[in-house]
Structure formats: structure tokens, C-alpha cells
Design goal:
Layout (H helix, E strand, L loop, with lengths): L2 E4 L3 H4 L6 E2 L4 H5 L4 E4 L1 H8 L9 E4 L2 E8 L20 E4 L4 H9 L6
Parallel strand pairs: 1-6, 3-5
Antiparallel strand pairs: 2-5, 3-6, 4-5
Length: about 110
């Protein structure tokens, strides 16, 4: 299973909505809620395309995540790149930056040689 931690605004920014169910909210993102949105392909492979999958759980790193939505078949993210992202994600969960993560990313710098 390929997973992606994404911000709550990703789907809205890309102008896409779940085929059914819903995307996670900003509050769920900020609170590190254990919720998940499935890709359409993963939904079909793992759950047989059952529409009653909402509310069930899927384990990620031995932690149960509640399934809240399924994306349409046309949604593939991230797109395949030349070196990375060989496969689009099967499941999307909140990125849930902690204050420590935010401080670390704000203070990280890179140098080119």
C-alpha cells in the first residue's frame, strides 16, 4: 500500500472531491485525526468496490484509520515522476504537522555547492 500524508486543503486546491464520503477537514488535519481517504483503485482492490466501506478502518503502521471517503477513478496523486513517485498513493491521511515539525521546517535551510 502506498500512502500520502497531505494537507486538508489538497483536494480543494486541486478542484477534486471524493466520489463518495468526504475529505478530511482542517480540524482533523490539525488534530492528527486517524481518518483516511482511499484511492478508487485501492478501494476496488481491497474492498471490492463496496459502498458500505465508510466507517470501516484500515491499519497504517499498526494504527487503525477510519475510512471517510473514496476518490474518483480520475484522481491520481502524486503524478508519476522520472525518479520518484512511481505509483500514485492508495490512501491519503492528514499530514498533521505538529508545532515542532513546523518550527523544524521553518528553520531548515539548504545550501548549494
Amino acid at each position: 500500500m502506498e500512502g500520502a500524508r497531505v494537507s486538508a486543503s489538497l483536494f480543494e486546491t486541486l478542484g477534486v472531491h471524493p466520489q463518495f464520503g468526504r475529505a478530511f477537514t482542517k480540524a482533523e488535519d490539525e488534530q492528527a485525526a486517524a481518518v483516511a481517504v482511499l484511492s478508487n483503485a485501492f478501494w476496488h482492490r481491497s474492498f471490492g468496490g463496496r459502498r458500505d466501506v465508510l466507517g470501516e478502518t484500515v491499519d497504517i503502521d499498526r494504527k487503525p484509520y477510519k475510512i471517510i471517503g473514496v476518490m474518483p477513478p480520475s484522481f491520481l496523486f502524486p503524478l508519476q515522476g522520472p525518479q520518484f513517485n512511481h505509483d500514485p498513493a492508495d490512501i491519503f491521511v492528514p499530514v498533521s504537522w505538529t508545532k515542532r515539525n513546523a518550527r523544524m521546517s521553518a528553520t531548515c535551510t539548504t545550501t548549494a555547492s
